[in-house]
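thread: overnight batch results

M.L. [08:02]
morning all. the overnight job finished for the chain we discussed friday. pasting input first so we're all looking at the same thing
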Amino acid sequence: MGFNSLIFINNDCMGEIDAYPGEWWQMAKRAIGSIAGAGSAKTFSFHGYANHNIAVWCRPAESVGLICIGHNDCRRISSIYDTADDIDHNTDKGKLLLIEAAAKELGYKLTKIQKKKVTTCEDTSSPGPRPKPTRQKSSSTKTPSKIKKKPSKKASKTGK
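M.L. [08:03]
and the structure it wrote out:
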């Protein structure tokens, strides 16, 4: 199936790459060749841009990897060599296998957090006290005779 390669380029040096594409490509190919099958990335400078080009990945096409990108850097976190083609990194199962491999490389074991069951008052299967029923308020309205009239502002000023 061949090899796949990944090169990280910081956009700041794109002008220099545009000006000298052949020279940049020769440097990139040397960097890719130096990491073929290796576990670490190779940073290569180009025309004053010291850390803006990184050959990150050069692995057999059967390999699936977890790559972390940020802060002007890009590194392989973990990878799995899969000759059976049963790891599809586009599925939840494939993503989980990659994350588990990363945890194992760092000396950790992943465990799934179980969600707690939330019970509601409609749930009759749960034991325990039930909430007290609430009284419904009457929808009747007060009759006009029971409503007290507030004195107007004019009446309170005159003392009436």
